[in-house]
Amino acid sequence: MVNAYATVVARQAPGGGNNNGGNNNAGGGNGAAASPTPAPNPQQSQSASASTSSTSSISIPDSVPAGGILMIDPPNTASQSFYKIHPSEYITFRWNLTSLVVTPTSLTVIASCAANGNTYPVGPTDGTQNTIKGDSTQVVWNPYQWAQVPGQPAFAVATYQLEIYDEGGPGARARPGRFSPYTGTKFGMYLPQSPVPLDQWTCTTCSGAIRALGEPAGLSIFMSLLIVLITTFGMLRR
């Protein structure tokens, strides 16, 4: 019996043996061998690294003009536009991107007011607000909605200037093929006024003499002078 058991063990030994009741196979054909991990490809690593730094290390000739914006709506050739600050009043600014070799990562849009020294975000009040994607060609703005945001300065009835710049900031210098900060489009903003009853209305552009004629005493004096002039004229014709 001992010799027969030893023979069985000896025959199993070349196969690596079964442990834990045959559940784990170290050798033989019962266990699937792990595939070897391939060595990294140096060319693929270099390609990935080059694509990551391509925009920062790209060489642009000095003969290439600086990139920027050409306004479409409102056009700079048109007379100044005026917009109403109202819940239903949406303002759309449209432009074309010109002479760009490198597209900016983002664009920031603001409106500056020289009358009060404030700047206002131009864009939606939610999401990215006034910071949009670098290849964007328009932005939609509702000033009334921004006026409801706590901490925002009140809008003045005045002239504003549109400013657009990329991640380099408003003071970035012009470089060939890259985005240059834009300032130029001017527009006016005004607040709607409630209707005024006719008896409370006054003419703000009329002279004092004309306003006096609308009063009873002034009208009586005017009529007296008119009668005197008509009478004198009739007597002189006789």
From TrEMBL:
Taxonomic superkingdom: Eukaryota
Membrane-traversing stretches: 217-236
InterPro entries: DUF7137
Compositionally skewed regions (Gly residues) per UniProt: 14-31
Record field: compositional bias (Low complexity): 32-57
Residue ranges constituting the DUF7137 domain according to the UniProt record: 64-205
Cited Pfam families: DUF7137
Keywords, in A-Z order: Membrane, Transmembrane, Transmembrane helix
UniProt region (Disordered), positions on chain: 11-59
Protein's UniProt keywords contain Transmembrane: yes
Stated name of the protein: DUF7137 domain-containing protein
